[in-house]
Amino acid sequence: MKYFFFALVSLLLIAAGTQTGYTQPLRRAWSYQSLRFNPVYGQEDEGSFSHLQWEETGHLYTRLERTGDGFDIAEFDPSQNFAKTVLVRSGELKPSPDAAPLPVESYTWYPAHKKLLLFTRSRRVWRAHTRGDFWIYDLVGKKLSQLGRGLPASSLQFAKLSPDGAKAAYVSEHNIYVEDLATGTRKQLTADGTEKIINGTFDWAYEEELFCRDGFRWSPDSKSIAYWQINATDIRDYLMLNTTDSIYSFVIPVQYPKVGYNPSSARIGVVSLATGRTRWMDIPGDPVQHYLPRMAWAGNDNQLMVQQFNRKQDTTTLYMINVSNGQSHRIYSEGNKAWIDINYFWQYDRPGWDWIDGGKKFLWTTEKDGWRHVYVMDRDGSHEKLVTRENSDVIDVAGIDSKNGYLYYYASPDNATQQYLYRTSLDGKGKAQRVSPVGETGTHECDVSPDGLYGVHVFSSHDTPPVPEFVSMDPYRVLKKGAGSGISTAELAFLEHNPQTFFRVTTRDSVTMDGWMIRPADFDSTKKYPVLFYVYGEPASCTVKDEFSPNPWFQQLADKGYVIISVDNRGTPAPKGSAWRKSILKKIGVLNIHDQAMAAIEIRKWPWVDTSRIAVWGWSGGGSSTQNLLFRYPDIYQTGMAVAGVSNMLYYDNIYEERYMGLLPQDLKYYQAGSSVNHAKGLQGNLLIIHGSGDDNVHYQNQEALINALVAAGKQFSMMEYPNRSHGIYEGEGTTAHLYTLLTDYLQQHCPPGAR
């Protein structure tokens, strides 16, 4: 249901490259998006700062760089004029003398132990390529060795060296192993792993909704491992049917807890390497009715800190746990009338907090005062102090300079479509200072070094491609310009020849929403134009951002004479305060739809809008919104194109929907009110619904349920099923080009282009 905007942009670029004469330039633009968001690393030329990896402490960093006949992995010291030390050349990474070098996809450098951990031959697990082969390269002995020999190929996950550098641990087929690097001896630490008992990693819902993937942590003394165990025994499988990959069809089961059904239970154990025995931590509450999204060692060998959510996700608790006896002590708890979000900065396999002051204090984010703010408190949860005091949201945390006492974070007090880097004192005193250069209006990102002294800064806007630059943070100054986006002036002219502009619209409800529009370059305000609204509208994403994310399909539509518009309604995660974001509680499919329609009513008043040619389209949550808008406001929208939409919210996963819509049975009425399948009789215009039958996220049953509802209501419509395609509908030769050609043709047929 969540729509990952940048992934779609990449697909659009591929599709547009297929349909136009700009194939090579668009591939370059797509590669920029891949470098930012693809979890599998590429090999890069010197001068690019993409995929720079900071070492765990300090400010040295490593990069994988192309060379004439292969690649190097090199270390750089920015404090010494970027002095470069080549750690390994690809020619050294041959499994045998006659073999080709390993195709390294990512790596981890352990400088204290002079070892590189290399990841290759990966396979996709749900969203990311987290399963593959791992190799160790010893820089001292010039020795290359594979971890997990004898285990199934490309089955290892999340391998990492112990703090003492003597061992490596990894997951294979839902069990945890440890391997002695000197002898190659392997020990299996868990033996009960199955498709249902999951050790050291997570099930579908935990990964998708709580951003959990890597599910184990080395103790600081290298003597034990803390890990999650997910028990999905009682989770029913959703059975996807594959009818094209063999003569006989077969089913693909997905562990998927639907709304109203219990989630997987989760517990945390600590296994001793010496004995192989696990002690389970005693965490209060029913493990089936709680989530454990974050866990980490608390700066010593005897304590874990664990975050717990209740089933409704409106209460979160932090526990300090003694691993020797498993006893838990609650150090912090907070509730919210709506829901509590996972802390933004600490997503994807990181703790939900950061330790400072030598482990005596930690940072925490919360919205309890109406804004997303950062607080600092002692490790026992006492002496809580507000760090970011401005009446604006912390969009994200960028870094910490513990030595000089600074917190770096993103905010945009005056424009929710933009993002700027700020810093403030960790002690909460003094005013925040804007670090982003004045005059650069748009979106700033900065990958700050662990010690907070350096960073890689990237600025972009809707009409400015990003160029990275290496900077010192205090004082802020540019030390080195990086390579650009690879987009030439001519290519940029194509990608943006129909200009994008931003606006605000205030509805009859006195709600002011941000929006953007793309109008034809030869726009004539004395004529009437068709409008295509692009919508998402749910709490997982915004569509209106002032950043460089060109959309060639929109450009092609503008060439044909369409105006494309998008607005962000209440409930989207814009930095406008908690009240804006939480207003959609129990109102998905209602409040967001109302706001979108009210914005469209105001836009229809603009003199150049042809009110007889109004269309809307969206993907995932945007597909859901498209269906609801067409069914419930047929006097506004004549044409809709809904891709991979949720038709019945009861069909979606419990973690996402219950967070925003409540629990069954008491909140059933809210699910019914917001589900488009219950409003199909309102269809009056033209509807195209599109879905992949292999969608493990928004299941194909949503499409079939809507078909049944439309048929029962006597409504005619158009549909396209893409066999065995996932939520992104990109698998298979020609799929993306076919999909966008279908959308274009349908739009032109039912909402004719051009000024009149």
Outline the structure in words.
Among the domains are: 46-188, YVTN repeat-like/Quinoprotein amine dehydrogenase (Methylamine Dehydrogenase, Chain H), CATH 2.130.10; 389-482; 499-750, Alpha/Beta hydrolase fold, catalytic domain (Rossmann fold). Helices cover 17% and strands 35% of the residues. It has an eight-stranded mixed sheet with strand order 36-37-39-38-40-41-42-43, sandwiched between helices. The longest helix is centred in the last third of the chain and has 16 residues, at 735-750. The protein starts with a helix and ends in a 6-residue tail after the last helix.
| CATH architecture annotation name of the domain at 499-750 | 3-Layer(aba) Sandwich
Lateral arrangement of strands in the main beta sheet: 36-37-39-38-40-41-42-43
User: How many whole angstroms does the radius of gyration measure?
Assistant: 26 Å
Largest sheet: 8 strands, mixed
**Approximate strand percentage:** 35-45%
Instruction: Using the coordinates above, name the CATH class of the domain at 499-750.
Output: Alpha Beta
Number of strands: 43
Structural class: alpha+beta
How far is the first residue's CA from the last residue's CA? 37 Å
Instruction: Provide the CATH superfamily of the domain at 499-750.
Output: Alpha/Beta hydrolase fold, catalytic domain
Mean pLDDT: 91
